[in-house]
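User: quick one
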Amino acid sequence: MKLQAKDLGLAYGPLEVINDLSLDIDAAEMVAVIGPNGCGKSTLLRGLGRLLQPRTGVVLLDNRDIHRTSTKKVARTLAVLSQTSQGVPDLTVEELVWRGRYPHKSWLQGATHRDGEVVERSIEQCDLHGLRGRRLAELSGGELQRAWLAMALAQEPQVLLLDEPTSFLDYYHQLEVMDLLADLNGRGLTIVMTMHDLNQVARYSRRVIALRDGRIFRDGAPPGVLTPEVLRQVFGVDAYVFTDEATGQLVCLPYARSDGHAPQSNHNSRKR
Amino acid sequence: MFDLTARRAWVLAGALLVLLALMAVGVSLGSERLSLAEVWDGLTNSAHTSDRVIVWDLRLPRVILAVLVGANLAVAGALLQGVTRNPLADPHLLGISAGSGVVGALLLVRGVDISLEAKVALSILGGLAGGAFIYAMAWRGGVSPTRLTLAGVAVSFLLISMTTAILASSRLFAQQSLNFVGGSLFARGWDDLRAVWPYTVVGLLLALGASASLNIMALGEDAAAELGVRTGWVRAIVVVLAVVLSGAAVSVAGLMGFVGLIIPHIARALVGQDYRYVLVTSALLGAILLVASDTLARNILGETELPAGVVTAGIGAPFFLYLLRQVR
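Assistant: Done. Structure below.
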């Protein structure tokens, strides 16, 4: 399923964050959005996920304006994972995952056998079996992240937008979540995620979009975007970029702030 | 701890039984103490005995009205806590019933000669006007739960002070004013009941219809929007429902506090987070609290009567504190 932005402008009140941005994301792509704090990558994700009404332009999901389609219908094909807060502290993991079935229910319709299967599969995929009865308040940051991911998967989306899916996770669970996402992507799920860890971007994404000042600075395959020059311009750091011989992976190793290239922030970082 | 499904069934059945038992007690107790046999006789024997008058004409309608008022306020509180995600949300604290309070005070002071149905409707309209004012004050390209709460609290204080001023400036008996501000079912009967019950029934059914959306709204603004809930609409509709329920309650019982604040928490502690159960349980527990409070209010002082609202807080608050210590 295609996701497109055309001349997209996003703002919080008078504060313009994304300006005139156009973007085509094809079915089954795995896209990482990178950029310094405040560059607008979370805002872009919220705009693509119809959580923020565009100031200008449109977002098209499957060629239909996402704001002119029933939002519940959109939720059956597009899931946005931006929240990793507790939500309802007393809710159990299993109850949270069940909430992901909401878009598939009509008014007052009860749970079906198939809903149960999808919930089970989502719990299984996110390795939450032992935690299903746990209250959200009792979870660690990483566990909470996986619980919300499971809820998003229970929506059975064809497009999944994630805001820093691996923050708060230890290395094991970072790899677990990224492997899961890669696996889902291999089965046709379109994924757009904002990320900070450039090495994971290099390893897992097939397309990287570098944002600066609310605009696309560079867009392409990881080796073309993750270059010392781009990292200097976008993040204001000097970095070694090389291919690790043991793993064959592209590695970014920032080693210094580069003078005169302090990252520009056009708004205060808005984390929710 | 046993299975949640079984627990919900037990809680609902238990609450229903307790409610029925309290209603029987409520009808039997009063200045004239009746045995349950006499109550039964008064209910079933159509001969015009004094028992019949006491049971059928005086106490039964008042007890049933207590059920409706308690259910209305508790469900209104549960709805408001759901859409504002604020555990302190309550029809009175949020100013939802304050508009109804002003109208009720005016009607009381002016002694306007209109039907009870019209008074209830006016009370609800007053509540809607108050609610609209709160919305307008909280509006900034949309209404966030926080702004709604803050505007509501401010408007509540404003309107309740107006209510008090209206009552104080009149030549009303202090007892009557106290009953209105404190919340009381003094001298209520079948006519009041007839005017209120349609709002309770329709309000509760619509509230249940909103429960699936409320379950999602509880997750947070972004998560609810992401899952396809039109959060702005749901919030507006649910607030209107809460206004209607509490407005109807205020029109017959005055500013009965505390029920809407405390009961939803007790309900959640008992049946979990699913709003379908929270709403039904709140309705039952609110009814229980109000029937018990009204019965105590009528009997505890002998000749005079306390405002029942004093008792709802008097028995509700300690019980709530007890629960706070017990439940993790």
